[in-house]
Design brief:
Layout lengths: L14 E2 L3 E2 L27 E6 L8 E5 L5 H15 L3 E4 L2 E5 L3 H10 L4 E3 L3
Parallel strand pairs: 3-7
Antiparallel strand pairs: 1-2, 3-4, 4-6, 5-6
């Protein structure tokens, strides 16, 4: 095998035995990558993050619930505040979950993804 072989067209090299992990954007080693500073840092989330819709116990009114974040109380409050502003809606933090009033699952998934948090839509 030829060790100097280039990846196929359209493929990105993410690891090199000479320099280790490479940035997928610029191709530089992670330690010397400058474009990584512009990218939002991935969150240190504990478990699977789920975004669900609940109506039970609310008189038929829907709330979007973000669960599984595993953040400290202050971080959870700050994230809830920003998500509420993004959705233009009220909400609260209760039992380690963020509840946003109304059906905002798509907007919440997009915003969490933009922040580097991998979240999945839960329920129907």
């Amino acid at each position: 095998m030829n060790s100097n072989r280039l990846p196929p067209s359209g493929a990105r090299l993410v690891y090199s035995t000479a320099s280790g992990r490479l940035c997928p954007d610029c191709g530089q080693p992670k330690g010397t990558c400058r474009c990584g500073a512009r990218r939002p840092a991935a969150s240190t989330v504990a478990g699977p993050v789920r975004v669900a819709r609940e109506t039970q116990g609310r008189g038929g009114k829907a709330v979007s619930v973000v669960s599984g974040l595993g953040l400290a109380a202050a971080e959870l409050e700050a994230l809830a505040r920003e998500l509420k502003q993004r959705c233009g809606s009220g909400g609260r933090v209760i039992d380690g979950r963020i509840e946003i009033q109304g059906e905002h699952r798509d907007a919440l998934l997009a915003e969490l993804g933009r922040r580097g948090i991998v979240a999945k839509r839960a329920g129907g």
